[in-house]
Structures are given as C-alpha cells and as structure tokens.
C-alpha cells in the first residue's frame, strides 16, 4: 500500500517549504517520491530534494487540471510501478484545482494499491483574504477540498490576524483540521496526527457511484452523484441523466469566477431549465477571453514568463528588480517569481518572491541562470528588459 499526500496551495503559499518539514520530521527514512507540477515552463525547485536522495518526477507540460488528468494518472502509475514507494507526495501547481488532482488519483486507485492520506492545502495566512477575493475560483477550490489546511507565515502574524484567517477558512471548509502553529514549533507527531486525521475524514470526500459514465454535460467525470452533492471536480452538477443540450458548463451560480467580480444570472434560458450566465462582454479577470460560462482554466487567467540567461547581476540590479516586482505593478500583477542567477562576483543566488515579500539565498552553480514570473497582465517586453535578457 502506497500512501499519497497531496500538498496543494496557491502560488508561493509555502508548499515546498512545508514538504521540507514533512520530509525531515515525518517521512524520514521512508521511500519517497515527489511529483511536482509547476505552472511555469522552467522548473526552479527540486535541487534540495534531489540532494536528499528523493526521487522527483516533474510534470512541466502544463497545469494538472481537467485536461491533464489523464497524463497525470499515467505519471503516477509509472512512478508506482518503477519505485514501489511507501509514500508519494504530489505538489500540484499553485493554480491547480485540488479537486482535479484528487480526481486524477481516484482514477489510478482503481488499479493500484494506493490510499490518499492527506489533501493538504497550504495557505499564506497574510494573503488568504486577498486571494479569495481576487482568485477565488482556484484558491477556494483548494480550501474547500482540503482535509488539512496548513497556514504559513503565522510567526509574522498577530493572534487577531490568525484568528480572522482561521475564521475565513472555516467558512469555506468546516471539516478540515487547520494548523496555525508556526511550523518550527510543530513536532513531527503533530503533523502526522493532522495527516492521519485527514485520512479519517477522507472518507467524507469519497463517493461510490457509477464510474466511467459519460455525463451529458459534455465532460467525462469519474464520479456521479445523487442529488446536489459536489463530485470533487469543483463543479456543481444537476441531474446527470438529463441532457441540457446547450453545450455549456454548468456551475454554482453564485460562485465567483476568480476575476474578483460577482456575476449574476441573466434571464436567458437555454432550454435545460437552468439559468446560465451568458455574458458577451469581456471579463476583467485579465484572461482576455470572452466568457459564456464560469469556468476558467489556469492558463486563461494566469501567465507564466520564463527565460534562461548568462547575464551576471550586480547586487543593485537584483535588489532593484526584486523591489520592482514585489512592490509595484509596473510589470503586471506579479503573484510569484523565482529564479537562480549568477552574480557579478561569480557566486550564484536563488530568489523567491510573492507580493510584498522576497527572499534571496546563496545558490549552487547551475548550467544557466533562469527565472520565472507568474501573474496576470504580464508585460513581457518590460520584464525582459528588467532581467537584462534581451
Ligand atoms: N516567513 C515565512 N516565509 C515562508 C513561509 N512559508 C514559505 N515562506 C517563503 O515563501 C516563499 C515561497 O515558499 P515556497 O515553499 O517556495 O512556496 P510554494 O507554495 O512551493 O510556491 P510555488 O513555487 O509557487 O508553488 C519562500 O521564499 C519561502 O521561504 C513561512 O511560514 N514563513
């Protein structure tokens, strides 16, 4: 039996940092495989885990989401056959929906001896409200489908702020264990207990209905449900045996689409008896597409820009670009950036950036400098100038 833990969380939430804690405190000595799915084309993480002798499979071909569920299932099966690990840790991209990833694992469960132990979502305590308001479609799904929610950065928050954050998360998920203790104070046992509790309540997420049936809404779902239950794909389905014929996705009508606006039903009927929202106007979510439905794929909303470079940066250049990206919107709405670059003195530095915060560490020489920037409305030409990669 291989136990599978999913460590999800929005861009820069602290997934990789929490995985380090898990590996050191909880999974030490176990045969472990990590499957990482980065949204950016250029993988930056990974080095430290490889050094620790942990097997890493990167899926950089795109975000695990409903369109990539099949590819992901194949990658997971391959890892199980090849390594027979005790544990598989899956780190989906920050903009992946936890329900999509869980559905992919459920696929594999039918012919492999695995059990989902924890659906863990790491939440940046300081940004939870802002991300819920602005990118609710992605962030909310990660919170709602978690069995354990781990809040990061609580060591830098007041008790009131921590409480407000827990309250906000509780409104979206009243079942999950919420960990708000700073991680360095958490023992391995406490983390293990939270994971095991996750496994206990995992049963609540599982449904046993007809598998492999084609839903008449035009999508292939792994599970079908009675009544108005959520199937884990993050969408709300109505009677599955009913053909509505309108060819649209149907969702909870009161759901936010992630563009930060609340859309209401328009009075149009497509004939299936449900109200659909059908705007012809452009949504201001930044994806630049016309929407006639509520569902966004991550790559419609978020863009990733990445480059390799031989440029050697001075301290001033690095300082300037990190401040520009974290404190201004001159280059678009920057949600995440990370990179490994060579400095003018020959040393290598690794940087990690989220809105309002960045961190620079000494890095190891690599084959080339490289960086990735993820956000909305990215100004790519300006970014290229900022990083001296033109
Ligand atoms: N102070 C503090 N910093 C943290 C904490 N968790 C994460 N960070 C920092 O936040 C940045 C992002 O952390 P990661 O662990 O790389 O986040 P991630 O969720 O893996 O990010 P993605 O690569 O976007 O998936 C890094 O600079 C971390 O050092 C925390 O609890 N406290």
UniProtKB/TrEMBL annotation:
Domain CobW/HypB/UreG nucleotide-binding stretches: 4-179
Catalytically driven reaction(s): GTP + H2O = GDP + phosphate + H(+)
Keyword match Metal-binding: no
Domain CobW C-terminal: from-to ranges: 304-387
MF-aspect GO terms: hydrolase activity; nucleotide binding
Keywords recorded for this protein, A-Z: Chaperone, Hydrolase, Nucleotide-binding
Any single Pfam family the record assigns to this protein: CobW_C
Coiled-coil ranges per UniProt: none
GO cellular component, one term: cytoplasm
Keyword Hydrolase: yes
Family matches, as PANTHER family: COBW DOMAIN-CONTAINING PROTEIN, COBW-RELATED
UniProt record similarity statement: Belongs to the SIMIBI class G3E GTPase family. ZNG1 subfamily.
Protein name: GTP-binding protein
């Amino acid at each position: 039996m291989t136990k599978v833990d999913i460590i999800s969380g929005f861009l820069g939430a602290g997934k990789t940092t929490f995985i380090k804690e898990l590996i050191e405190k909880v999974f030490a000595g176990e045969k472990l495989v990590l499957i990482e799915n980065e949204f950016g084309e250029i993988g930056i993480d990974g080095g430290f885990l490889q050094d620790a002798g942990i097997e890493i499979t990167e899926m950089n071909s795109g975000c695990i989401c409903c369109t990539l569920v099949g590819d992901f299932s194949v990658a997971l099966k391959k890892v199980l056959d090849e390594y027979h690990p005790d544990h598989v840790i899956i780190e989906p991209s920050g903009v992946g929906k936890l329900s999509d990833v869980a559905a992919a694992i459920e696929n594999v469960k039918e012919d492999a001896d695995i059990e989902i132990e924890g659906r863990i979502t790491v939440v940046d305590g300081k940004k939870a409200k802002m991300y819920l308001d602005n990118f609710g479609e992605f962030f909310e799904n990660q919170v709602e489908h978690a069995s354990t929610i781990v809040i990061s950065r609580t060591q830098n928050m007041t008790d009131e702020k921590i409480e407000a954050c827990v309250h906000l998360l509780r409104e979206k998920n009243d079942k999950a264990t919420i960990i708000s203790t700073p991680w360095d104070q958490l023992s391995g046992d406490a983390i293990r207990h939270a994971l095991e509790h996750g496994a206990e309540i995992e049963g609540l997420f599982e449904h046993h209905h007809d598998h492999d049936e084609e839903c008449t809404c035009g999508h292939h779902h792994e599970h079908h449900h009675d009544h108005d239950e959520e199937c884990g794909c993050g969408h709300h389905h109505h009677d599955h045996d009913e053909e509505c014929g309108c060819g649209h996705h149907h969702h909870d009508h009161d759901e936010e689409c992630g563009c930060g606006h609340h859309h209401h039903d328009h009075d149009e009927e497509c004939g299936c008896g449900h109200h659909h929202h059908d705007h012809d106007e452009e949504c201001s979510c930044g994806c630049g597409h016309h929407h006639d439905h509520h569902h966004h794929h991550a790559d419609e909303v978020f863009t990733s820009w990445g480059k390799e470079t031989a440029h050697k940066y001075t301290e001033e250049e690095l300082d300037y670009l990190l401040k520009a990206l974290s404190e201004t919107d001159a280059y678009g709405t920057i949600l995440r950036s990370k990179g490994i670059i060579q400095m003018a003195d020959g040393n290598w530095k690794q940087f990690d950036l989220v809105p309002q915060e960045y961190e620079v560490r000494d890095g190891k020489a690599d084959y080339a400098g490289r960086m990735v920037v993820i956000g909305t409305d990215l100004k790519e030409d300006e970014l290229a100038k900022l990083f001296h990669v033109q």
